Amino acid sequence: MAGKQVASASPGRYIDIRSWNRKEHFELYRRFANSFFNVCVELDVSSLWQRTRAPGGPSFFLASVFSALRAANAVEAFRTRIRDDRVWIHDRVSITPTILREDRTFAFVRLDPAPTYSEFERRSASAVRAACEIKPLVPDPPDDVVYQTTLPWIRFTSFSNALKGDGDSVPRIAFGKCSEERGRWKLPVSIEVNHAVVDGIDVAAFLDELGRSLEGVMAGGADPALM
C-alpha cells in the first residue's frame, strides 16, 4: 500500500491536543523518521483451535480476524489516527485482511464489525469470495481500518510491515502459523503501531482483549457496541 492515507467520513471526533494527556508524547514521536514500534508474542489458542477442527466448527481464519477486530474496537488507541497535525478517534473501525488468490497473489478485503461471530461470518463470507476477483488492488483505503495479514506457513518470532510514512498511523496485525507445544496450540501475533498515538500499555490492553475474544469467540451474547 503506497500513497497518502485517505481519511474516511465515518463517525468520530477530533481530540483537543492542547488538553490531551499525551500531547508531549504525540509531539515527540511525530518528529521521528519512523515512529512505529512492533511487539511480537505467542497466544494460547488451544480452545479455539480445537473447536475449528471439530465437524461444523468455525473457520479459524475468520474467528481470529473477528477477535482482532473486536479487540481493536475495544481499545481507543487502536481507533486513533493522525490527520495532518490533528488526531482523530473513530467510533469504530473495520479490518482489511489479506486474502490469497488462486494465482498465489493476494487481495484485500474490508470486513466490518458485527455483534457476534455468527453474524460476522455470515456477512464476511461473500465479501471474501468477491475480494479475490477484484483487480487491481485498491491502494488507498480510508483510515477507519486496521490492516491484518496471516502467514499460516511461518511460526515467526519477529515481523515488520511496509510503512507508508506521511502521517500513516493505521495499526498492523499479523498472525503466523499455529503450532503445537506440549499439548497446547500457540499463535504468533505481531502488533505494529505508531508511537505518536499508541503506547505499550495500549498494546497490552489490545492483547488482553484479543486473548479473551479468541478464548470465547463462540460463546456469550452480542456486543451492543458493534451492532
Topology:
Blueprint: E1 12-14, H1 23-29, E2 36-44, H2 46-53, H3 60-74, E3 80-83, E4 86-90, E5 94-100, E6 106-108, H4 117-131, E7 145-150, E8 172-175, E9 179-181, E10 184-194, H5 200-215
Parallel strand pairs: 5-7, 7-8
Antiparallel strand pairs: 1-4, 2-10, 3-4, 5-6, 8-10, 9-10
Helix pairs in contact: 3-5
Question: Quick summary of this structure?
Answer:
This protein has 227 residues and is an alpha+beta fold. It has 5 helices and 10 strands. Helix 3 packs across helix 5.
Characterization of the model:
This protein is of the alpha+beta class and 227 residues long. It has a single domain, classed as Chloramphenicol Acetyltransferase, CATH 3.30.559.10. Helix content is 27%, strand content 24%. It contains 5 helices and 10 strands; from the N terminus they run βαβααββββαββββα. It has helices spanning 23-29, 46-53, 60-74, 117-131, 200-215; strands at 12-14, 36-44, 80-83, 86-90, 94-100, 106-108, 145-150, 172-175, 179-181, 184-194. The strands form 2 sheets. Strands 2, 5, 6, 7, 8, 9 and 10 form a 7-stranded mixed β-sheet that branches. Helix 3 (60-74) packs across helix 5. The longest helix has 16 residues, at 200-215. The chain is globular, with a radius of gyration of 17 Å.
